Inverse folding.
């Protein structure tokens, strides 16, 4: 069984929590996602561990028999 963490960082995880409210404003929603992605990229420069391991949005399981 393999487990993969999905996401990119804390700002992307926060965006996923706010998305149900932001989806009614499509352009603003995409702008917030872009900003979250950029902020996560900047933070990743200064942190050694992968941020998606610390702040996952979800998990993807792969099981083989």
């Amino acid at each position: 069984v393999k487990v993969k963490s999905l996401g990119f960082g804390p700002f992307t995880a926060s965006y996923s929590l706010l998305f149900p409210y932001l989806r009614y404003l499509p352009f603003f929603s995409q702008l917030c996602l872009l900003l979250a992605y950029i902020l996560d990229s900047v933070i990743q420069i200064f942190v050694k561990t992968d941020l998606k391991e610390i702040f996952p949005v979800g998990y993807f399981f792969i099981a083989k028999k």
